[in-house]
Amino acid sequence: MAVKKRTASPDWEDVHFFLELARLGTLSAAARSLGVTHATVGRRIAALEAILRVQLFDRHGGKFTLTTAGESAAIAAGTMADGAHAIRRMSAGPSDAVKGKVRVTATEVFGSFFLMSRMRGLVEKNPGLDIELVIQSRNLSLARRDVDLAIRHARPEGASVITRKIADYASNFYADRSYIEARRGEPLDFIGFTDDVNGQPTALHTIRAAGNQQRYSMKVNTLFARLAAARAGLGVGIVPKFVAHQYPDLVEVDVGVEPLVRELWLVAHPDVRAVARLRVTFDYIADAIAGARDILM
């Protein structure tokens, strides 16, 4: 009797390598994470692409970015990974220990100026947690498991994630106290934004405040630079209230516009309620932000 030839199907290990490369973006980084050589990662990806008959990545100077087909594959692979994680949890029994890795992403400003100073309580209460705080302006994918939790300025649309609006925060105009005292009665200069970032909400709010005169002493492209310029007495700059309150030399300046108010959303993979380490981290961050409304608004 003739034996039917089996149709090749993706190997789970190849899929695992694919997800790591999608998350980290380079062969060397994925190889370090997986404990293999970069050549092994390359062979695994080539094998998966051959079976699927699609190109999963675009290669540019050693950097791997997902193609459209790769994006679709990453979402499906993420579902496979979730199933594998669920099976491992079942085999581990009913233990709900708070331990393991949790990847959280936030913008540089919020992650560095707000969240970092509040993480000590979480790690002290839960020494088994391995927290990775990924500072990144672009939105990392929860579906691909780039991260487990994300703090964002808007609620994601059409995504299979858990979301919670946790606060609003205000940005006002601030300047160094000595600058304001020296310019008493004279027009104030503004710290503006370079062309590559002048479409940001904070930049547009600054343009409205500066008015037709467009009085700029300097233009910069990051909040860190704007904060440094304001503290150096170069003019008035828009700064989040939760940042400005950390610097006694900064005073709020009435420039004739209302504060810029933005939302903060905590976004999580659907696993968040089923996995203790994610649930504890999610609730801790939400409570920490909700409890700081006096410095946020």
Essential attributes:
297 residues; alpha/beta; Arc Repressor Mutant, subunit A; D-Maltodextrin-Binding Protein, domain 2; 2 domains; seven-stranded mixed sheet; two-stranded antiparallel sheet; 12 helices; 22% strand; elongated
Overview of the structural elements:
- With 297 residues, the chain is α/β, with parallel strands linked by helices.
- It has two domains: 78 residues, Orthogonal Bundle (Arc Repressor Mutant, subunit A); 145 residues, 3-Layer(aba) Sandwich (D-Maltodextrin-Binding Protein, domain 2).
- 41% of the residues lie in helices and 22% in strands.
- It has twelve helices and eleven strands.
- The strands form three sheets. Strands 3, 4, 5, 6, 9, 10 and 11 form a seven-stranded mixed sheet that branches.
- Strand 7, helix 8 and strand 8 form a beta-alpha-beta unit.
- The protein is elongated, with a radius of gyration of 24 Å.
- The N and C termini lie far apart (77 Å).
